[in-house]
Amino acid sequence: MTLATPPDPEAAAASRVRWPLFAAHPALADALAPVALATLPTPVEALPALGANAWIKRDDLSHVVYGGNKVRKLEFVLAEMRRHRARAVFTLGATGTNAGIAASMVCAAEDIPCTLITFPQAESSTVAGNRQWQAHFHARHEPRPTLWSAVLRYYLHPGRLNPRNYFLFAGCSNPVSTFGYINAAFELREQIRAGLCPEPEEIIVAVSSASTLAGLTLGVRLAGLESRVTGIRVAAERLGPFAACTTGVVEKLERQALVMMHAAGEAQAMKKAPPATLVGDYFGTGYGEATPAASAAIREFRDKTGLELEGTYSGKAAAAFLDRLREAKGPLLFWNTFNSRPLPRD
Q: C-alpha distances in angstroms, 202 versus 55, 86, 144, 276?
């Protein structure tokens, strides 16, 4: 008779720290089987130079090589890629896509090609640096002259005829990726319980492709937190005829995640997705276009905290965070989604 391998207490403890979602919803562990990629939990820190109510979640440190909010998603996406036995990945984004960097990093480690179908973005030092990151991870490029032509190429790509090709939407967003930020909400709950930060009245996060906001909105409710989650829209509401950054898209991702939870046997999960809050006041004139408020927020964060932000995502969310701090009566949490790791030297 073959004896079962006894459980490894250290591995089990590490899993609880990395994926506290599974302690509350154990059936998801086998159903999703994420791949450990990120450096978790990411720190929570006070920002006293910005005010007594200012706190930050440091997802800029989510990976030892390239941080930001995409790596959490890719832990769950990579598991799905492996289940599909993917031989190539195709994704969509602007020329300076952060998601394309993270996806190409993961693909390079898996030794499979990653192709970025890109549309033009306003030039900046961040965009130029991101193109260096993409080259570092050997990303392939299919540049298109307009956003609409890139969207068409993504949806009508001839590579879709090959079932071993994996198509990953902009921002590394799809239903399974939402669990990266559902888990992040449980991670925050554990940090609150450990006394590392107070429970925030409001969480402020940049939103482009919707799954980060969907995960946090659903996650805080599943975790029993009372925090409001406010997404700051930094992308167009539509990609051509396709809804992209709307409350409807966010709530659809929440519903899809709940369907997956129920299918895995988590009958006690919520039946109805919570409403999403998405603010478009800080978007400006277009995706990646600088705004005076974002530029001022970037300077204030740099001067008072030493943290570097950028104008496409984190700077616009930071502008909203600073505005809310002026009226805040309790703690606010800025969820930093921008990578702060330096480009490795080849």
A: 10, 39, 39, 13
Quote the pTM value.
0.94
Walk me through the domains of the chain, giving residue ranges and CATH numbers. Answer: 9-69+178-336 (3.40.50.1100), 71-172 (3.40.50.1100)
Q: pLDDT tens digits for 16-75?
A: 678 999 999 999 999 999 999 999 999 999 999 999 999 999 999 999 999 999 999 999
pLDDT digits 0-9 by tens, 288-329:
998 999 999 999 999 999 999 999 999 999 999 999 999 999
